[in-house]
């Protein structure tokens, strides 16, 4: 598809969480309808969507009907089973494409891909078995983090090694899943670049934001990040390099460590990203609309930052603070309408704006 | 209801057009679900709502089921049949309340109400019949506008009288509907104040915007309006006076003529208003969220204006300009997802921002 998606077309979204929800609202703002595919009942995105299919990713009939009802299909998470993508691809265009998913679904593939592009990544080693682990203690060493190669998010499927004595316990934590050992980077801070690329190759990056995590979950993103002008340029250029190499279509989040002034690529996410939520109140066109524009083949929008923003996630009991937050000046609330509050669950976020 | 509406509650919206659509998105952002009631099929609001009831305002069963499914019911237009409101009121709270609808559904009642509040309105006369028209030629005279007392919008149900010779033709245009003759105000410009009032009596006004109409339909709203500081204060105070007198809950649009420095109340709309669309890109909390906050008994949000904005409606063939508008800097597109483009139909709007 090279022609722009016509007004009134239907965009399919795999995943009905908060990212799908905010994508659906952005798509509606441009005159598109959204169809959500989500195994779980009462998905947050379902409250703002044209249609919802509740079915598993193994349900070939449901996937087929869904794909036939959509003009283009996108996703809010990267761990989509390959078999589901195969079914969808027979009937509808998938954007971003399969290559970005292939690379980002596997931490080892991703690290090799980034390294082959000439980018700096943390020291890493493939850990298929205990013997590899013993060897990796000599190359990567400690402190380091053992991670499952696939299906990790928000700090899950990870074990920290402070000393080589932690290796056995960490390996046991992986429960025989293929893993990768990553050298711990003693970074000064972390930033992320949210970037979009359209089918014609145009790339637009939002200003880098600075991330703070708590318990392995993003806590705040602050713009502007503490980057020098040269670092900001470098961050944007290396991000564009990744998107161009993948011939990527859509929005991608790229997390970078800043260590001794150097930019080290931590990971890429082939989708809208939690660290880009500040764009909703800091830019004319936010990351969600930018993603929709890209996958629809529309011109990318004006993502110039017009305010300083601190985005803070509302996680679990943070929801008790909503009444106070609702009263605060220069504060935009974004709640996800999730029925149940659980510890560690992302329930909403707040953007605090200063000009 | 004095307690704030709990998260996850359902808000009913009578009317599924663009105003209902944008209200529904704002409600979702605060964690509420929206249920749209609309006689027409494929309502624009249906694409971003939790539930849709397609039924007529005469359908008592459908209205009852709808009302029972909602925690509070609001509306996107003022011409709701009284009988429908009676059915809903038996099962759900209606906000804004019936008094605001009673006053604003009838131009004569509205004019009298505003005059009784000590506000300035254009000269007017009740025109129940031809004899009253003859008499009104001596009191109101010409130029003037004959309007049906009820069910007019976007310039419909109106006839202009340049000279007394136009009286018979204008009366015939009314097709025996009760009418009101309004003296034509030779105004310098028109502004509107979008204001919100919560159940506890707190009032918040957005900055007045300056309106330009074409063919009886709003064309642009520009903020800031060309008002002196004193005029701006007066506009806000008189608006608050109306909301307080009505013990109003929700957002109201108040249109004012500025003539020789004087503020003349043209009309009030007990709902979010087209001339308030600029708030989507000019304020942290827009008129739609402000309305939801008010009817939910939440604290009103921060509606401080942080940019200059020109809102332009996209009407009918203006949609041909969407590809160019999508490329423009500092320009936010808001499309309504209407299936068919017709002359005079509001298809979307664009907010052009400058800082």
From TrEMBL, chains A, B:
Q: Name one GO molecular function term.
A: 5-(carboxyamino)imidazole ribonucleotide synthase activity
* Coiled coil in keyword set: no
One of its Pfam families is ATP-grasp
Highest taxon of source:
Bacteria
Alphabetized PROSITE patterns for the sequence? ATP_GRASP
List of residues binding ATP? 107, 147, 152-158, 182-185, 190, 213, 266-267
Keywords associated with the record:
ATP-binding, Ligase, Nucleotide-binding, Purine biosynthesis
Q: Locate the ATP-grasp domain: which residues?
A: 111-296
Pathway-wise, it operates in: Purine metabolism; IMP biosynthesis via de novo pathway; 5-amino-1-(5-phospho-D-ribosyl)imidazole-4-carboxylate from 5-amino-1-(5-phospho-D-ribosyl)imidazole (N5-CAIR route): step 1/2
Family matches, as InterPro entries: ATP-grasp, ATP-grasp_carboxylate-amine, ATP_grasp_subdomain_1, PreATP-grasp_dom_sf, PurK, PurK_C, PurT/PurK_preATP-grasp, Rudment_hybrid_motif
Keyword Nucleotide-binding among UniProt keywords: yes
Assembly behavior? Homodimer.
**Name of the protein this chain belongs to:** N5-carboxyaminoimidazole ribonucleotide synthase
Q: Which organism is it from?
A: Sulfitobacter aestuariivivens
């Amino acid at each position: 598809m090279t022609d722009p998606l016509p007004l009134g077309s239907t965009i399919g979204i795999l995943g009905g969480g908060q990212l799908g929800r905010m994508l659906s609202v952005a798509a509606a703002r441009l005159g598109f309808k959204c169809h959500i595919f989500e195994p779980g009942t009462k998905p947050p995105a379902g409250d703002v969507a044209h249609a919802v299919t509740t079915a598993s990713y193994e349900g070939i009939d449901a996937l087929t009907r869904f794909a036939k009802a959509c003009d283009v299909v996108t996703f809010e998470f990267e761990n989509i089973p390959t078999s589901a993508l195969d079914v969808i691809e027979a009937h509808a265009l998938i954007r971003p494409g399969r290559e970005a998913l292939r690379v980002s679904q596997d931490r080892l593939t991703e690290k090799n891909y980034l390294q082959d592009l000439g980018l700096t990544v943390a020291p890493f080693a493939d850990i298929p078995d205990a013997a590899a682990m013993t060897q990796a203690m000599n190359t990567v060493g400690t402190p380091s983090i053992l991670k499952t190669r696939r299906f990790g998010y928000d700090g899950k499927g990870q074990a920290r090694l402070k000393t080589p004595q932690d290796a056995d316990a960490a390996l046991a934590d992986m429960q025989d899943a293929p893993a990768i050992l990553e050298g711990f980077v003693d970074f000064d801070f972390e930033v992320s670049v949210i970037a979009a690329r359209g089918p014609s190759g145009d790339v637009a990056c939002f200003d880098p934001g600075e991330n703070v995590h708590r318990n392995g979950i993003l806590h705040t993103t602050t713009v502007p990040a503490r980057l020098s002008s040269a670092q900001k340029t470098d961050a944007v250029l290396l991000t564009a390099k990744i998107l161009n190499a993948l011939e990527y279509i859509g929005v991608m989040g790229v997390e970078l460590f800043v260590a001794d002034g150097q930019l080290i690529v931590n990971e890429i996410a082939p989708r809208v990203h939690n660290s880009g939520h500040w764009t909703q109140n800091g830019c004319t066109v936010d990351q969600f609309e930018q993603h929709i524009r890209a996958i629809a083949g529309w011109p990318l929008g004006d993502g110039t930052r017009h305010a300083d923003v601190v985005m803070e996630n509302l996680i679990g009991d943070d929801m008790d603070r909503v009444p106070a937050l609702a009263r605060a000046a220069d504060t935009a609330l974004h709640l996800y309408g999730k029925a149940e509050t659980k510890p560690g669950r992302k329930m909403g976020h707040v953007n605090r704006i200063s000009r």
